[in-house]
Fold these 2 entries.
Entry 1:
Amino acid sequence: MDRIRIVGGAPLMGAIPISGAKNAALPLMIASLLTDETLTLDNVPRLADVAMLKRILGNHGVDCMVLGKRAGQNGLQGESIELRAGDIVDTVAPYELVSRMRASFWVIGPLLARMGEARVSLPGGCAIGTRPVDFFIAALRDLGAEIDIDGGYVIARAKKGLRGNRIVFPKTTVGATHVAMMAASLARGETVIENAAREPEIADVAACLVKMGAKISGAGTSTIRIDGVDRLNAARHAVMPDRIETGTYAMAVTMTGGDLLLEGATLAILPTALDVLTAVGAEVTATNEGLRIRRNGNGLAPVDVTTEPFPGFPTDLQAQLMALVSRANGTSHIRETIFENRFMHVQELARLGADIHLDGQMATVTGVDRLKGAQVMATDLRASVSLVIAGLAAEGETVVNRVYHLDRGFERIEDKLGACGATIERLSG
Ligand code: EPZ
């Protein structure tokens, strides 16, 4: 299994091209199931999760073609892929595939809307929480589907097609908002989704669906209106920049010191997190190329943060923030409210010398003067990158094991950081 070796201490200097967002690319690729014409996606990140989803969509009959490099491209840009679900030959998403990547459960919406049936394996729990799918099932029932759960599968039927309705989510959910929005696009009549997720990835998917001919308004707010149409058509759409990758590198340079340009990033996609970073000790400047992040030289200040749905502080940056404030001049408090088991990185950061006390969903982080390199274990995607950030600032050598977690969501991380002065390499096998 690959590992990543880091020798810490160097400030990060230079520019990092921000990749397309994993959490937009996945639902965008799934939206290809809604039409028998070609959906072309640009700026698709080269990630393990994207590769896995291509396999899963192929299982339903989707042709997926990666377009070759174009003149003027240097190969560091994201991929351009053509997806065409001319014929959906299979409406079953098997356990063997869904269990490998949870978001593949989201195919249930487009399959049901277009084919009137879907049999999708329950995704099961994951390292960060139980993550049930009850809100998905309730929303699809609101749209008129009959749903049974049998043998670990969700069996959904709507032989006469879906019909528009009012959907009220008891709690904000990104995945179920994506799925309800996609399914309602082909339902008869109007759907209104209330307490919808407002994450920028929702608006990015809605923008693509509108290009395909859907009638959607209000995406990005907590009330989304969809007027169903009979069919959706071919379109071309570029995946938005990855705000979690942006926040991760911004925290890295704030921890190591230095001056980084995050190419393609904007303030709008990461409001609260950038405010928190400024409070900790970063200078954040919007430029024509992206966001410039520099350490302000006053040492790191402690902060109190609670993770929340957008526009609040993203749970996907919680672990990275914890690594950052482990070197702050004082005590920080981080409360995790989205997932019930998202502190797996705490014990690993402690191996590097961090001083973190857990009490339920609250982490108290008492800043230390120095971190010291060690062997550490990645447990999930975001936890693994918090160990990389801490390793960049630790004295000596850190080795992060099980980096397959990292490859699921960070494109060429060692190349990007290495190009900015970090001593970082991948050790294969
Ligand atoms: C998306 O997951 C992201 N994944 C997650 O990123 C992210 O952490 C999460 O949104 C929150 O921002 C993708 O976009 C692929 P939710 P999702 O539905 O949709 C509960 C990463 O690191 N819930 O908004 O699964 C759920 O258990 C990943 O890139 C139900 O109870 O998250 C959680 O506590 C990790 N029943 C809360 O709602 C349901 O039916 C929010 O989950 C659905 C959700």
Entry 2:
Amino acid sequence: MAENTSKATLSFNGKTLELPMQSPTVGPDVIDIRKLYADGDVFTFDPGFTSTASCQSSITYIDGDLGELLHRGYPIDELADKSHYLEVCYLLLYGELPTAAQLEDFETRVTRHTMLHEQMQYFFRGFRRDAHPMAIMVGVVGAMSAFYHDSTDISDPWQREVAAIRMIAKMPTIAAWAYKYSIGQPFVYPRNNLDYAANFLHMCFAVPSEEYVVDPILAKAMDRIMMLHADHEQNASTSTVRLAGSSGANPFASIAAGIACLWGPAHGGANQACLEMLRQIGTVDNIPEYIKRAKDKDDPFRLMGFGHRVYKNFDPRAKVMKESADEVLNLLGIEDNETLKVAKELERIALEDEFFVEKKLYPNVDFYSGIILEAMGFPTSMFTPIFALSRTVGWISQWKEMIGDPQQKIGRPRQLYTGAPRRSYSEVEDR
Ligand code: ACO
């Protein structure tokens, strides 16, 4: 962090306070308001944290105006081009790109932890067949703390490390089994001879009765989807993981909280909602009607896959995702896909439309990911679980960083109270 000797002066209610400033390595300066309540007897009011840094972090940086996303300083488009998911996991977790030996060791450790405790199958079988796989994931990941007692002591760095590896390794198995359970097929065990993305596809699409060979182009596309979702600084689910973990909750419980948050349609659930919307639009001729609805203040309809709290120019992940969508559909020979046509035309119209331009609403990462996943054979209900398994490394890296940060306290926001002032209880017959 760069040194900053300037102070912000705040005057209110006849008082003047000088507040220290801090400079990040990149990005806007921050005003340190930690002593505001103690010295000034006031709080700040910032619902939705639009102007509040909740922590300090050295993992991921986003410049919303430039449309830039950096993991440990490396741009996402360069990583998407040259790296692969497990290498990005290493980078996020440990801060540097691995040497060949470090990468091999890391990949071996992850690969050796992909199996689930056999008894965990009973958890899956306890759910209704029509349960959403995200509901199963929240439950099963939370239940991991009942199985892996030797990695729940958060004060032990070794246990934190084991929990991180276990979570990254087992999440694809959990997501794939949630899917298999929902379609009534037998669970497929992980295969150590396959890489991370190929193993996931194998667990989702193989059946015991015949050989299933994973197409390397599809495995590469899957790896890319995972990479593009790996981390995104203090988004809603990551902040949820940090908040849950700040009380000392174990890592499995904290990540289960993050999965629950990710499920919402304004966050990770947008990829499912987006494809459902594209299908509902159906054909290119219907687009103007939906654009009109999105602009109507009295209509709750929003264009799913558009807009982002931080990106106000473009989402760099969406650019890479669009290329991948073209590649995958080409490979599968479905360039003529009606949903893709609707998506491309919707994007074109929205990017030229004054309403969307003025509000800086651009396609986000979820706009194209659903099209790729559907082409691979996934039902829409699996889109958000795939986001969850990809984001696990981000959650666990941020959680580890928080636990190791001596400045971190339990997360406990204050409020602007608008309820009744103190009053006396009245007996029921007097009301
Ligand atoms: N369609 C139509 N109008 C929109 C959209 C949209 N997708 N997104 C924002 N707006 C409008 C709002 O109505 C609002 O208009 P107003 O100023 O006239 O009231 C203005 O743009 C600002 O919107 P907010 O909701 O205040 O912006 P915020 O930063 O809180 O929300 C969010 C960001 C949640 C992503 C929002 O753009 C949205 O709901 N998008 C659709 C869901 C989606 O795609 N989510 C995925 C996000 S990326 C991710 O999680 C991986």
